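pls read this stuff:
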Amino acid sequence: MGSIDMNTKALAPELEEFLRSNRDELNQLYRLEWLQNRNLDGAAFLQSFESLATSYLNANHMAGSADRKPGLMGLYRMLLLAQPSRSWSSRMEKLLESALKLYPAVASDQGQLFLSRIYNAAHSLSQHGLDPQRWWLLMKKLAEANVDYTGENSNRFYRLAAALSYLAGMIHLRSSALIELQNMNEEEAKAIFPRVQPTELRTWISQLERNPWAGLSSPEPFMTGGYQGFSSFDTPGGGIFLRPPEFLRVEEESQAILLTDSHRNYLLFADRFGSQIIPRPITDEEQKESERPAAVPEDLLKVALKSIKKYALPEPSGISAILHRKTVICLSEDSHFVWVVPVH
């Protein structure tokens, strides 16, 4: 049970040789992990490894790399940790295979680090209720730029990957992502935004720093949050608040809204690419120093409520609201939801 049958039939000669010559070490690694996690399925694990290893070797051949054992061993170790977890799926495996095919030079240069970073990014998106495929479509576009991301350029590759996850809905990465998007070279900009001229793109990104709805002629209001009792925080579509939330302050560094439900504190991020509410521990001293943001002018609140009604959203009662970066944020004393209303 604590070992795997390394049937090496019908494999690429190089992979067959790796499995045969390292059989004892590979089985020992598997056995140690199996003793800690009995969810490991030997046949399924080996099938996933052989599939990813074949893609990895093909990537190395394309990149002209010679020493492949460290990368194969790293892939094996990574898969031992990932495959038994709830985040592993056939979709995740296909995404990693796609990564190896799209970025052979980076995969050859970075090996296990490359696959681990791609896996962690996709897993993080899933944990926040976002579809990793939205992000991966953007990563596929980036591959068309044909830019060298090996060696010293690898860190820039990972920063750009994080910036693209912002475009896919990871709104809490907004500040750092906008910096990376501003610094894209011409090839990258054309690949990600093929129909936008470079000067127009830079102007738009600059506007996004001040106006989260830049580029939208009529941004619609929406609701986020919800009651945590119906589902857990890490369940897509699930609620988050135990009690109706209240305002604490605007977080200057992230420009997010700090909320509390008297149980925990949270940061609310919202812009044209989506919204996120993320737990954010704060100290008692920070709590005392918190100043509630200024209320919304009456005429602007009327505009916001009219917009909520226009788009057939439930109308909040016992309302409190603030204005922040061309957005009216509304809370209700008897609701676990947050109303986010773009205003001009």
In short: The chain has three domains: 1-127, 128-210, 222-342. The first strand starts at residue 222 and ends at 225. The two ends are 64 Å apart (CA to CA). Residues 232-237 have pLDDT under 50 and may be disordered.
